[in-house]
Write a structure and sequence with these properties.
homodimer, 307 residues, Arc Repressor Mutant, subunit A, five-stranded mixed β-sheet, 10 helices, DNA-binding
Chain lengths: 307, 307
DNA sequence: CTGGCGCCATAAAGAGAACTTATGCATGAA
DNA sequence: TTCATGCATAAGTTCTCTTTATGGCGCCAG
């Protein structure tokens, strides 16, 4: 059954305009439709009500008693609906909820988000560190930032970058074994996040046969920022992205004993539901972050080693 | 405050039901549509708002903040619209505005309307005596009762009856000429409403050659009830419908010296706009009056003379 | 852990409401 | 009278909305 069979909403909207303008043609102009369509809708409503609503007099129409009685409520109702829509639409541009991988949140967004907020002062950002992959059907997120190899189906996916990584550790820890000069030296130290494929990738890149890291189970964090914290605390050597720890390297809190950086097929992606591609706040953030990460990479990313 | 014609009203109604039921399928059932249609409308609304309104979780949906913010206003708005429709529809059954020929109003409705109101106590009748023919485009009438020969185009027309008429006068006036025994005697008296065709019709019926009534311009009323009043006042002889003056005849205030009644092609009609044929109050009155007039005629109408 | 069930999404197709174009008619003004 | 204004009607078109059909996902019971 047609929804408008019960209460003809569109007809009521037309009615409201006609009653205000005292004329079909004028109402039609406001509503952006033809006079004919207005006539049709009014007749429809009159049939529903069972009562004439307007007396058609030359030059203008006159509201009947019934129309006058209905008008205040109808006007008020459409004001409410309008308000609800407007405020919702505004709210939708006001708060941006980002569910980000903890590492990216702590080591990149935390440092760079300020510039986005300066560019878009009207958008309030709510930033959540999430480890579980965001399901837009369950979480009220606008945007998710996640690690992964490739685009996910049914989502708009934008690759922010595949970042260089290399082993890093605290200078103090390096001293305990008299400094680190060869990749094999690392094996004398606790390996943080030993289960990560990047360790194998890195050793392969520097020409060391795949070492057995199965003994290094002590600090097997999944999240890179935890690995980073452990490394900073001198608990071992971790394989970290340069871009996320560039400040720690610059300040000397961490060192990367080998200038041998490499990448793999895991990248950081920005994803959001396809349908919301053009929502202003989403579009604004997407364009900003893609540009900002690219420019950060260009500035700080080390050259990958020659194969 | 102009309401953009892009506000998706039907979607908002669906939204309201979904938010209340916390489920598309349940809302669909209430609205009498399929779950698919609900899904479609919600997506439509979400696109307009630019914001997810419901989180789809297994077994139920959850309103987002945006939805919660919109809900009170939307609910209230639809209450108002509903109220406006209901009260208008009720009002339309509450008051019946009848624009009637003065004669019928005074000499028939005034006597018989009580029985209609007993039958339909919820309908308040507003009865207006109007001489000018009712134009439903200009007057807020529900029903018009008028004299005429035949159906009018574009209107629902119901013939109530073609009534017998004959000359009538007050007994006192008759005495002034020693009683009225032949049709020609009437010409000694002032003729009321001499311009009416019924006089010619009646004289023809009783076999009197069409008399020249052009001298009788004193009481040339158009409305029969005025003619009747003049006749009651003894100002002359009028040609009147039996049905409208049966009580005056019965009480002796008027006499019809000849039992020669006749009719012509002019009748009393009940008319109303075609589109409102089935409006309850109109239907009720129409059926009542047709029946009531018919039964009154059967009871009181004199037999027309043999030609 | 497997199959049934509840609930929502998507695709395709169809119905029918709503809109437009074209035209006519009535009224009041120039 | 003629023109301009404003609404009604008819016919044809557009496109929103709906339904039917199908599939996925998560929960629960056996």
């Amino acid at each position: 059954m047609k929804l408008s069979r019960k209460v003809p909403l569109n007809a009521l909207r037309v009615f409201e305009a006609v009653a205000r303008h005292r004329g079909f043609s004028r109402a039609a102009e406001e509503l952006g439709m033809t006079q004919t369509a207005v006539s049709y809708q009014i007749k429809l409503l009159e049939d529903h009500v069972g009562e004439q609503l307007f007396l058609r007099q030359p030059r203008q129409i006159v509201n009947t008693e019934t129309a006058e009685r209905m008008l205040p409520d109808v006007t008020r109702a459409f004001e409410l609906l309008n308000d609800a829509m407007v405020s919702a639409r505004q709210a939708s541009n006001e708060t941006l909820e980002i569910h980000s991988s903890p590492t990216f949140a702590s080591h990149w967004l935390a440092r760079n988000l300020g510039s986005f907020q300066l560019d878009y002062p009207s958008i309030a950002v709510r930033l959540l560190r999430v480890s579980k992959i965001t399901d837009f059907n369950r979480d009220p997120a606008d945007i998710s930032i996640r690690w992964g190899v490739g685009p996910w189906p049914d989502l708009d996916c934008h690759l922010l970058g595949r970042f260089s990584f290399a082993p890093m550790l605290s200078p103090a820890l390096a001293e305990t074994i008299g400094g680190v000069s060869s990749p094999e030296d690392l094996l004398k130290l606790p390996i943080i996040g030993a289960g990560q494929g990047s360790w194998q990738t890195w050793f392969a890149t520097v020409g060391v046969p795949a070492p057995d890291l199965s003994g290094h189970t002590r600090h097997n964090y999944v999240e890179q920022d935890l690995c980073g914290n452990a490394a900073l605390a001198g608990q071992g050597v971790a394989i970290l992205n340069h871009i996320f720890f560039s400040e720690d390297l610059a300040s000397g809190r961490l060192i990367a004993p080998f200038n041998q950086y490499c990448t793999d097929d895991i990248g950081i992606w920005l994803v959001h539901p396809k349908s919301r591609r053009n929502t202003p706040k989403i579009k604004a953030f997407r364009e900003w972050v893609i540009q900002a990460v690219a420019s950060d990479m260009q500035r700080t990313e080390p050259k990958p080693p020659q194969a």
